[in-house]
Write a structure and sequence with these properties.
about 375 residues, alpha/beta, Rossmann fold, 2 domains, six-stranded parallel beta sheet, 14 helices, two-component regulatory system, P-loop_NTPase, Rossmann-like_a/b/a_fold, transferase
């Protein structure tokens, strides 16, 4: 459990004035056992005297999951009737009023029915956390916003229900529930994930072996990256720990920036790394309409590749790139060959040489890409 509870003699739980702690169980696909593991931990905590309730549980007809929930208090859902159809949602207000120490919330990326107070279930979870209640929740890797385009390319499926990356970043604990693709396929064939009518269709589509391998790697890398971020923000004499490659593409007003971005995206994709792009604007120089449109195009392209675009104002380009590289723990920098006239290079020195000097101690690889004029 995340905190020491305070129990008074009459067994009333006294809530400390703090935000609740959030633990997320994440997996590569439905059926890996996220909900089962969450329920398993909940039973153990209940035995230890923790006040645990189920806020919402989606069993999808899975017998083992339903049986695992027995013995845990369930907060009744809200019920609304629309066009003679009964719709149910998690009752956030009832959970806050009940005020348990821990609440279990399945399927974090779920979209609430129209007319609900909050559009998404993760927003309900934030409300519960703000009330000082701890939350255990579950989600699959394909529901993470930043991975949406990549997941669509891998699986051919555009995931509509997504959660912002910050939800994972802000979580107090993230646990990967990992099984091999072979085990998951076996569970699917045995009818432990979906009904018999959906088994073959699933195996031929989302649950193809190559999809599962790629999604599994995404899930493991995402959590490894979270661990790395924690390591890099811990006060260990300023040392950093780079588990995942990070590629920074330096774009400019020159047309070759689009080529650089594509090359940088390929490098990042090949290394399963993160992509960043940076444009450093001179504070005293206004961009023309054509130049502004070009930078906008670069930003859109960067985001299409799943990258983060950084727009910075500075008089000193090379030192600024080195500073950003240190801040974001960049491991690879991509620049174009210099467009400076030869006389300027003689006069001021090579930009590439200056940048190399600045990043020499950061253990960063520099890629100088020859592009079409």
């Amino acid at each position: 459990m995340f905190h020491n509870s305070t129990i008074s003699p009459d067994s009333t739980y006294i809530r400390p004035h703090r935000r609740g702690k959030h633990k997320i169980f994440i997996g590569m696909a439905p059926g890996v056992g996220k909900t089962y593991k969450m329920l398993e931990e909940a039973h153990q905590l209940k035995q230890d005297g923790i006040d645990v309730v189920i806020g919402v549980l989606e069993t999808h007809g899975r017998k083992e999951t339903a049986e695992k929930a027995l013995g845990l208090e369930i907060i009744p859902k809200t019920v609304t009737i629309r066009e003679k159809v009964t719709l149910q949602e998690m009752d956030t207000d009832a959970i806050v009023k009940r005020s348990p120490q821990l609440v279990l919330v399945d399927e974090l990326a779920h979209t609430n029915v129209p007319g609900s107070l909050r559009e998404k279930r993760y927003q309900d979870v934030e409300e519960i956390l703000n009330a000082g209640i701890d939350v255990y929740s579950t989600v699959n890797i394909q529901h993470l916003e930043s991975l949406n385009d990549l997941v669509a390319r891998i699986t051919g499926v555009v995931v509509r229900e997504r959660i912002p990356d910050r939800i994972l970043d802000e979580a107090d604990a993230v646990v990967v529930i990992d099984v091999t693709p072979e085990t998951l396929e076996e569970r699917l064939r045995e009818g432990k994930i979906y009904g018999s009518e959906k088994i073959q269709q699933s195996l031929e589509n989302f649950f193809q072996r190559r999809n599962l391998i790629a999604l599994r790697e995404l899930a493991l890398r995402e959590v490894a990256d979270t661990v790395e971020e924690d390591a890099n923000t811990s006060p260990l004499q300023g040392q950093t720990c780079n588990i995942r490659e990070r590629v920074l593409v330096c774009v400019s007003t020159y047309p070759n920036s689009v080529q650089l971005l594509r090359r940088g995206a390929r490098i990042a994709n090949y290394m399963n790394g993160r992509l960043y792009a940076i444009f450093i604007a001179n504070p005293e120089r206004f961009l023309s309409k054509k130049e502004s449109l070009h930078i906008d195009t670069c930003e859109k392209l960067c985001k299409e590749f799943g990258g983060e675009f950084l727009h910075v104002k500075s008089y000193n380009v090379a030192p600024e790139i080195a500073q950003v590289a240190a801040k974001y723990h960049i491991t690879q920098i991509v620049i174009g060959e210099t467009q400076q006239p030869r006389w300027k290079r003689w006069l001021k020195g090579s930009f590439t040489q200056r940048l190399m000097e600045l990043i020499r101690k950061q253990n960063i690889d520099l890629h100088i890409i020859a592009t079409e004029k």
